[in-house]
Write a structure and sequence with these properties.
alpha+beta; 2 helices; transmembrane helix; Translocon-associated protein subunit alpha; membrane; transmembrane
Length: about 130
C-alpha cells in the first residue's frame, strides 16, 4: 500500500517500491511481474506490468561453488577427450605397423619326447605313472 496515494485525472505518478529477494535465491536473471490495483470513480481496476531487467547477483567473493564445479567439469571433459584422442592415435598406429610373424620354436604334445627332461624328477614321475597304469 502506498498510503492511499491520490493521482488527479490525466496525470501520471511514480511510487517507489523496494524489491528484495530471498537470501536463498540462486543468482541469475529474473522477471518481475506486478499488479497494480486502483479505483477510478469508485470502480476497481487492475493493471499488470512486466519488467524483465532484474538480475540477481551473488554478493561477495570472486569464486562461487557453481563456477568451481563448471571449471572442474570442463577440465575433466578436456582430459577425457585428450585420452580418447591418444588412444585413437595409438590404435591407428598399431594397424599400420604390422610386425612379421616370428617362429618361437617347435612344440611337442608329448612331454616324454623332450630330451632335456630326461633324468629329472619329471620323467621319473611319468615313468612311475605309466607303471601304475599297467
Amino acid at each position: 500500500a502506498f498510503n492511499n496515494g491520490s493521482v488527479p485525472p490525466s496525470a501520471q505518478a511514480t511510487f517507489p517500491y523496494i524489491f528484495a529477494v530471498s537470501k536463498f535465491l540462486q543468482p541469475g536473471t529474473f522477471d518481475l511481474v506486478g499488479t497494480v490495483v486502483y479505483e477510478i470513480d469508485q470502480l476497481p481496476y487492475q493493471s499488470t506490468f512486466y519488467n524483465g531487467t532484474i538480475e540477481v547477483t551473488e554478493a561477495g567473493g570472486l569464486i562461487s561453488v557453481e563456477s568451481v564445479f563448471l571449471i572442474s567439469l570442463g577440465i575433466a571433459l578436456l582430459v577425457l577427450l585428450g585420452l580418447w584422442i591418444r588412444s585413437q592415435i595409438q590404435h591407428l598406429s598399431k594397424k599400420t605397423k604390422r610386425a612379421p610373424k616370428v617362429e618361437v620354436g617347435t612344440g611337442t604334445t608329448d612331454a616324454s619326447m623332450d630330451e632335456w627332461l630326461q633324468g629329472t624328477a619329471y620323467t621319473q614321475s611319468l615313468s612311475s605313472k605309466s607303471k601304475k597304469k599297467k
